[in-house]
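Archive entry. Fields below.
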Amino acid sequence: MQKRITLKTVAEAAGVSVSAVSMALRDHPRISETKRVEIKALARELGYIYNRQAASLRQGTSDNISICVNDLHNPVFLEFLTAIERELRQSDKLVLLCNAREECEIQDSFIRRMLEQGSSGLLLSPVEGTCPETLRTIVQNNFPTVFFTRRLEDEGFDHVVSDDALGVGLAVDELVRLGHRNIAWIGGGQHTSTAAARFEGFAAALQKHGLALTEAMVEKVPETGLEVGRAAMDRILRHAPEVTAVACFSDLLALGAASTCREAGRSVGQDISIIGHDDLEQSVYFDPGLSSVRVAKEQIGRDAARLLLNRIACPEAPPVHETVAPSLILRGTTGPCPVR
Amino acid sequence: MQKRITLKTVAEAAGVSVSAVSMALRDHPRISETKRVEIKALARELGYIYNRQAASLRQGTSDNISICVNDLHNPVFLEFLTAIERELRQSDKLVLLCNAREECEIQDSFIRRMLEQGSSGLLLSPVEGTCPETLRTIVQNNFPTVFFTRRLEDEGFDHVVSDDALGVGLAVDELVRLGHRNIAWIGGGQHTSTAAARFEGFAAALQKHGLALTEAMVEKVPETGLEVGRAAMDRILRHAPEVTAVACFSDLLALGAASTCREAGRSVGQDISIIGHDDLEQSVYFDPGLSSVRVAKEQIGRDAARLLLNRIACPEAPPVHETVAPSLILRGTTGPCPVR
DNA sequence: CGCATGCGCTCAATCGTTTGACTTCATTCT
DNA sequence: AGAATGAAGTCAAACGATTGAGCGCATGCG
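PREDICTED_STRUCTURE:
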């Protein structure tokens, strides 16, 4: 096994100094056109591999960016990631991804590791119950960080989130307009800003329309999976049969709820209306298509990425808080309130 | 903004040499118990952050491992990842993840970047049409690499895959046992080992049972999403109405197909049987539960990770090829062939 | 002709950590 | 007593790329 090809190897082969090679490869003007071409060709031929560890040790910077997502099991995060990566690829940053699976420990060790690796910034959709220790690490090392999808109470950090309360408000308004009076809620049992805001939006909207919020009509489930939605809907059908419409924290919950309704012989969109939240790419393909609150994922991802680049360039700027308005997408799961 | 805290900072504060601090932090026996405790406490107090770039530059090794997945849109890859990460976390390796979104260029630049970063190994579920250039990069730098879920024709690499042909064979056997004679196929239009093997398994099984394979009954779609499955099933219903059972390349396709059938008024599991492949975690929650070929994701992920660690430890060992047998999981979407 | 200018390149220090060689001092063995 | 051993550190040379300073050499100008 031969030794690693370094600048030195190339320099010796080309009969020039190490610095000349370094500069040639980076198109530094101090090196002549002819030499540059020659050196580059030689480097390629020898199979030279740039050593970023050495480079960034010397320079004190790196051009990779870390993303830590609370849980990839919800496909909505994939959509955020796509938008973020699209934006960051343009600036030739490498994106390193971590799926924290809603475990604080995973998130923690990833962040620490990224600091050790010299990552230049972090995009964070924090896990439920993110420990203060983690935040301290970020602050102490002033690690450029932008929160997205979920924010913290601490106002000192940048964040880009959806206007969750507004979104649920839009959903409830539409259900009321369709004549529904007994509207249930599924989701929002997590201790996250998103869960809190969406439920508050629900409660506020009910109040605005003078509707009651009874205990049997609220299912504060702690997760967002399909199966959880199914079970929650089952409880609602049994304990609150008067319900004709359901607003859900997420599309996954809504799809689960719809499946329970169908099983119970209630036609979704006619006997009972269901609205999700997030507007997953695949929600349009369900039968009937899921009505949902469309979170501006493209914009949130893009803006979070840009904000991070700004923050890296200018660490002392005051924190930026961005709240992006969602919109309502109506498909087949919502319809007029059935007459008794 | 203060300068970065380094070993030197800590050493000066503790009144010892830089090497002493380095050794103390790594529990080197040459440092006494008392000094070690003292130095560690001081390092923590000062907020010392280990600089891995410097360390691995010096050592010529790093302890992070890269995973590149062809496309996270299929949730089955999340399940593989979970298994892999579980295994690697034990050995205190950092896992760096890339979603190649089935684009060769993304995969390519990730791999190159990982070489530059000094990643110690790669787990790769290669994108469709992985270019030879990429493989050359891997070989030339003898970058320890294990392929999983999809393999290459090149026998020189390690791989861990499911026995795809066997899996589809099991599915067809079951459908035949249930009395079906007109069995259609959806999927497998991609240029991947998985697509080829699953379709071959289908064709071979039909032949074994003396059944015909007509063109109208084969939908070689190039993707695996829900919507593609829906469209494919639609074409089958129109052009091959005699079909009573469908074997699919993936669960996503199968779920799409099932949705089309329901829409067309065909009761899935009674009028028509559908079998998926992969056995996604969520497939059990659909209504009716999806029958599927269960790929041993836990085992494949675990073994791929272990294989990689072996490969890293021993780069010259002969390549290992592992094929893991899947099993058949029957739920509600399969039933006896309806009598005419 | 002599001196400044600038081009094109080399030199050497540097980033932070690791590690084999070396030092110092105390203790043990012969 | 003198040599040998060992414990607990220190020293300095790496790892590979970058970069400010420096150095010939040719050209231009007065």
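CURATOR_NOTE: The radius of gyration of chain B is 26 Å.
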